[in-house]
Amino acid sequence: MKRLLLFAMMCASISFVSAQKKFDKVSKVTSSEIRWWGYKVVKTEASSHSGTVKLKSGKFNFDKTVLVDGEFVIDMRSLMAGDVSEEDQIKLTNDLKSTNFFEVKKFPIAKFHLTKIIPLANSEYNSTVYGDVTIKGVRKTITFPANVYVTQFTVVVESAKFSLNRRDFKVFYQSSLKDYFIKNEMDIQFRVSTEKLDNENRVPVKKKK
């Protein structure tokens, strides 16, 4: 009888955990823009580079009308340098995708799990965003300022430009001499927005005429 009771309690516990992971509403990201900046140690316009990377998928999870968290997958294969000539663009882009930096063949995606949003007052940005970013299999907790707008199940997040330390994610040249001339800080800025979704069919809800 005790074993049967224990088994029943375990099943109930598993069911409870599963229920916790089932959200009432899911809003899918339908519009996104992600930009990056990298710098040489001697930071000048000529020694700085910028570009883009694309969001593969993204969503915000709701418990009733309360935003719980957000899950985002970045397509590292879409990484692109955008501030140089066509010939240099191809060379720099290939270098960034190689084992010297992001190793996109081995690590084709990066992830960001938004865990918390804290409102700010009297600031250029209305919120501080907390989350975990995973690059090259390394996960780090980060925070950054952002303007966050939530209306019903529609979400817009516009981040400030914030820095990540590339060495935290093992993003560095195999040659220590070349790596010495590159700043460890790389800057990121992004904007993501959603449309309200029908939770059963996972399609955008048609706007009322």
Automatic annotation (TrEMBL):
Which UniProt keywords are present, listed alphabetically?
Signal
Show which residues constitute the signal peptide. Answer: 1-19
Q: Does the keyword Signal apply?
A: yes
InterPro entries per UniProt: Lipid/polyisoprenoid-bd_YceI, TTHA0802/YceI-like_sf
The record's annotation in Pfam families points to: YceI
**Record has Lipid metabolism as a keyword:** no
Residue ranges occupied by any Lipid/polyisoprenoid-binding YceI-like domain in the UniProt entry: 26-195
The domain of life is Bacteria
Q: Which SMART domains match?
A: YceI
Q: Which PANTHER family match?
A: PROTEIN YCEI
**Protein name, UniProt field:** Lipid-binding protein
